[in-house]
Amino acid sequence: MDAQFLTYKLHHNYVHNWLISGMIESAEKEAVTLVSSFQSETIPDTASKKYPPLIRKPVELSPVKRNHPAYWKWFECREDHWIDLTHDFHQETSVEAYVYSIVSVSSKQTAKMVVTSNTTVTVWLNHKPILDINHPEDFVSGEVDIPLRKGQNQLLLAFRTAAKRQTSILAAVRLDNILSDCEILIPNHEYESGVNETRQTLEKITANSFLTKYVFGSLMGDKYDRNEPIPILFSDKLQESGQLDMRLQDLDGYIYQEGEKKVHGGQAISAAVTFPLKEGAFEFVIQPDAHDYYIRKMMFDRRHRFFMVRGAFSSQPYGTFDERKAELIKIATEKKHDDIYIEVAKMAAGKWNYLDNKRIQSCLKVVSQRLRKAELNLVGFLGILYRFEKDANFPSQLKESIQNAIAGYFNLPIVPDPERSEAESILFSTSQILAGQWFKSDKQHGIHCEELYQQGIHSAIYWIQQRGKYGFIEWNSSENYADILVALTHLVDFCEDDTVSELAAVLIDKLLFLLATNTFKGSLGGPHARCQLGTIVTSRLEPTSGVCRLMWGMGEFNHEVAAPLSLALSNYSMPEIIAKIAQDSAASVWILQSHRNPEDEKIKDNTVNIATYKTHDYMLSSCQDFQPGKKGSTEHVWQATLGPDAVVFTNHPGNTADDDLHIPSQWRGNRILPRIGQWGDFLIAIYRLPENDWTGYTHCYFPIHSFDEVNLSDDWAFARKDDAFLAIYSSLGLTSIQHGPTAFRELRSYGNINFWLCQMGHSLLDRSFQDFQSRVLSISPAIDGTNISVNNIRGDTISFGWDTPFLVNRQEQPLAGFSHHQSIYCQASYPAEKMVIISQEDGLQLNFSLEA
After folding, report:
1. Of 159-163, 635-639, 798-802, minimum mean pLDDT range
2. How far, in Å, CA of 521 to CA of 317, rounded?
3. What does the pLDDT read at residue 47?
């Protein structure tokens, strides 16, 4: 069958349409070792570089190589122009990948090709190598003049890289100086006449589909086991119509609902109206109907990420600890996720007949093969042995399965992992201690118990003392804090060394105090060192939300049950003063705190200084002057919190991916970090992007549907949630995105030097929302280069700049050098070996010295 072609245009001179091979394990492992330098060079015509061993003419759905399962798949770039092959690898490997397209021009000519990539790539034109980018540390561009012959020109990019965990593989191809009509052709087999014309109509329809928010689910929780419907919208500018298949599936590909619909422009179609989804991340997938997709081979789709929240959120304290504990255990037993702690909840509830062996075996495999979250599962299984092994209902075969998996984990060589997270480190030490204790009289499984135990004791004491004195390296990270609580509670309950168990209890006190001061009515609203998309667009899915609900009655029992359940079943008892601080409804609290990595000599670059202004109606929190102008990662550096879903922040996107795979991504982290100064309820964030910045804009997460009222103007946006008010300003103007992947959630502002202002307010101080807007609109910021001066609505004159100090009424305010904690609740300097916490007439001392 002869190949036909799908036909496309360039997008702002970028090639957006390709065939991609997917990841292929490389046979040349030694050739892809990462080095510290890069080279971008054109390849002379006389080069003898060999063309990759591919089937000569790639066609969609045909094999990439002979005797290999990989096949060519259709791919379209996002708005950011990236050919995106980013992948999560469970183990270190070497991979290669290929992308292919045809450039068709109506006349012979010479054009300029610019290729940008962050990995090793060789570019071939008409089977001749023309450009190499070798071992880049960051994004590198190479350019070359290319001879385009009249008609079709075959373009192939070959990637090779060493891969481990989340590996970013990106490239973009731009064609400049094109002198005649240019088309991009994707070869495929047209199985029936007219199929490609129909297909490209359907491609256009799916490209014009969008959701209007990320988070679905009532704050009051589900009623009658029905979740909030998820509507997909189609742009009212769309003229075409067609038959499409729509499905709701989780990130593992499990399909919850599927159906076919005839769609047209301006239409909204609701899914999951009667069929409830589990809690967590989902994709709304749109593709051609079954006949077109499977028979006529129109194998493409469009995916929209969203999050379903099923439980009720509490913004006010309720019940007793024992009542909330019983509620948590009941909810945890009903969860559907692949989590061993769900089985722990069933054991605690006495539901032995309902244990899910499939889930248990899946989690055992994670441990024995050291897959992602192996340490968290390992501690969970050890806790099962210590807590339930003597129960008459405990399955005898389960004990042996758990012991074999634990032995399998520790009998493999322990290789130091520099990428091990802060939480993974203490989970690992905890598992060493508990496994060393458990197997000390067991010779069958071959574990060196005493060595394992002593290593764990030594590392756990050091780890706990460092966090006690200096805070956390991954500050305010919800997943980090939750996993640490799992480790510490298991040390409190099962470690035979009194020093370790007592230090663990004291650090739990400290961590819960940090949660109490950094949460707003159960929402962890402060900045995070490491964040995920699902936990910055809603606090209801944070792993610490259940902890807050259990310990002081505010938050939500979501699918992240490990930390709250570990606390609920633990012998640990939280001092009442911490709950009082978390529940404090004072008019306003100003909190300054910092966290430091004492193991790094570059203290300035490894200390974060956080300012938080907390009222009864909102919280504004930010990292002060945190590494401005440097390349960021997953840092979430400021946020205004008006409710669990009503959050606002700005960032400089690394790309337009809505996921946790990319670092940074659309909303997660920053490509270039801003300079931030905050004074009470007023914040300034200055962005200075490089001249050749890829995206060319900064933007604001502004979820319109999460507020009670909004009002948008050219440079100000206003929002109200209950009695809290917010105003956000951009010096380069605001564009509210109304279509596409971020519709009704994004305020975009183009330009390299931009000043974002955030002013908070509430009805007690500012009367009505209208009065608040009027006062804010009277503000006239004065901007001079990279400096700004503004009189805010509180009567303060605030001046700030990229290279100038933060002045309030002409007095310089420090943005660095904060104490470990400074608030009405605690004053603690470094090293904070002792911390005294007070609230009204109550007091608590935390002591991390070994002599305590």
Report:
1. 159-163
2. 9
3. 56
Cβ count within 10 A of residue 704: 18
pLDDT of 194 reads 87
| SS3 call for 33 | coil
Helix, strand and coil in the chain, % to nearest 5: 25, 35, 40
Q: Quick: pLDDT tens for 572-623.
A: 999 999 999 999 987 799 999 999 988 765 555 689 999 999 999 999 999 9
Q: Cα–Cα distance between 623 and 818 in angstroms, integer?
A: 11
Residues 216/308, Cβ–Cβ less than 8 Å: yes
**Averaged pLDDT score across all residues of the chain:** 92
Structure tokens, 208:
């014009």
Find the range with the poorest average confidence among 682-696, 753-767, 837-851: 837-851
Q: At what angle do helices 498-518 and 545-552 cross, to 10 degrees?
A: 100
pTM > 0.90: yes
The CA radius of gyration of the chain, in Å to the nearest whole number, is: 28
- Count of H helices and E strands in the chain? 17, 47
pLDDT at residue 414, rounded to an integer:
74
> Which burial class, exposed, middle or buried, applies to 15 when counting CB atoms under 10 A from its CB (0-12, 13-18, 19+)?
buried
CA distance 151 to 198: 24
Which amino acid, 690? P
- How far is residue 749's CA from residue 377's CA, in Å, rounded to a whole number? 43
Question: For 11, which DSSP code?
Answer: B
Residue 160 tokens read as 């090779």
CA distance 77 to 83: 6
Distance CA 543, CA 545 (A): 6
DSSP string, 182-207: EEEEEEE--SSTTHHHHHHHHHHHHH
Q: Residue 416 above 80 pLDDT? A: no
List Cβ neighbours of 712 (8 Å cut-off, separation of 6 or more). 718, 734, 736, 747
The long-range contacts involving 323-326, CB below 8 angstroms and separated by at least 24 positions, are 324/549, 324/550, 324/553, 325/550, 325/568
Helix (H, G, I), strand (E, B) or coil at 676: strand
* Nearest Cα residue to 362 out of 248, 279, 252: 252
The DSSP string of 356-368 is: -HHHHHHHHHHHH
Q: Do 844 and 837 form a contact (C-beta atoms < 8 A)?
A: yes
Dist. CA 244–CA 258, nearest whole Å: 11
Q: Which two tokens stand for residue 767?
A: 């009367």
Report the 10 Å Cβ neighbour count for 33.
10
How far apart CA 545 and CA 563 sit, in angstroms, is 10
What per-residue confidence (pLDDT) applies to 599?
75
Q: What is the pLDDT of residues 675-720, one digit of tens each?
A: 999 999 999 999 999 998 999 999 999 999 999 999 999 999 999 9
**Residues in the chain, overall count:** 852
Range with lowest mean pLDDT among 24-33, 301-310, 460-469: 24-33
Q: 217 and 308 in contact (C-beta within 8 Å)?
A: yes
CA atoms of 814 and 317, how far apart (whole Å): 35
Is 736 buried (19+), middle (13-18) or exposed (0-12) by CB count in 10 A? Answer: middle
Q: Rounded to whole angstroms, how far apart are CA atoms 477 and 530?
A: 5
Sign of the torsion formed by the C-alpha atoms of 559, 564, 569 and 570: positive
Q: 193 near 212, Cβ under 8 Å?
A: no
Which three-class secondary structure state does DSSP give residue 436?
helix
pLDDT, tens digit (0-9, with 9 covering 90-100), for 211-231: 999 999 988 887 666 778 899
- For residue 528, CA distances in Å to 280, 328, 608, 639, 739 come to 20, 26, 10, 10, 29
pLDDT digits (tens, 9 = 90+) for 806-824: 999 999 999 999 999 999 9
pLDDT over 60 at 32, yes or no:
no
d(CA 490, CA 426): 11
| Distance separating the N- and C-terminal Cα atoms of the chain | 81
Q: What are phi and psi of 689, to 5 degrees?
A: -90, 150
